[in-house]
Amino acid sequence: MLSQLHSVFTTHTQIERELSNLISAGVLRKILLRGSSEGGGQVSGAGGDFGIILSETYNNLLSSYGDMFGNFPEWLSSLGRTVVSVSRESLHGIGVTDEEIQRLIEAGFLTMEYSLREAGYTISVPGIGNFVKNLRGGRRELLRVLKRQTYKEILEKVCG
């Protein structure tokens, strides 16, 4: 997760620059973890934290479904590799049909994005919902433990 990198390293600009270079080179893919912030969209304004996945891992997941997604995998691995969200019109522009979009949503590679002006989708990973659910639960538990402490702090060895 991008927020973990920011919590460990103090040079946020350097992190963003390195990530941008790795994403542009096709090594990493940035995805939006929808609903990972308390209240929906308070962390990034678009619905959650950003996650990072190796492009090779993501492409292997995508290719395991064969050719049922049309031009989407090819576009995603080349021109779309820096994209986090995409509009329906853009998908139609690269030759992805409504039926293929529906299959991508059902498989978990796209999620509906209602905060965009036009109908759009965010790039996702199948099964990410369980991760986000556990992430939110872990954050709630840490907050619960911190609230019970007199000085609202806790030793690292206690929670680790």
Describe the overall structure.
By secondary structure, the chain is an alpha+beta fold. The protein has one domain. Helix content is 48%, strand content 16%. The strands form 2 sheets. The chain has a 3-stranded antiparallel sheet. A hairpin with a 6-residue loop joins strand 4 and strand 5.
What is the strand and helix layout of this fold?
Blueprint: H1 2-8, H2 12-24, E1 28-34, E2 48-54, H3 55-63, H4 72-77, E3 85-87, H5 88-93, H6 98-107, E4 110-113, E5 120-123, H7 128-148, H8 156-159
Antiparallel strand pairs: 1-2, 3-5, 4-5
Bin the strand percentage.
15-25%
The H-and-E topology, N to C, reads as HHEEHHEHHEEHH
Number of strands: 5
Return the structural class.
Answer: alpha+beta
Mean pLDDT score: 81
Give the overall shape, derived from the CA principal axes: elongated
First-last Cα distance: 18 Å
| Total count of domains | 1
**What summary fits the major beta sheet?**
3 strands, antiparallel
Pick out the low-confidence regions: 39-46
Instruction: Walk across the major sheet and give the strand order.
Output: 3-5-4
Characterize this entry briefly.
With 160 residues, the protein is of the alpha+beta class. The protein has one domain.
Characteristics:
two-stranded antiparallel ribbon; 160 residues; alpha+beta; 5 strands
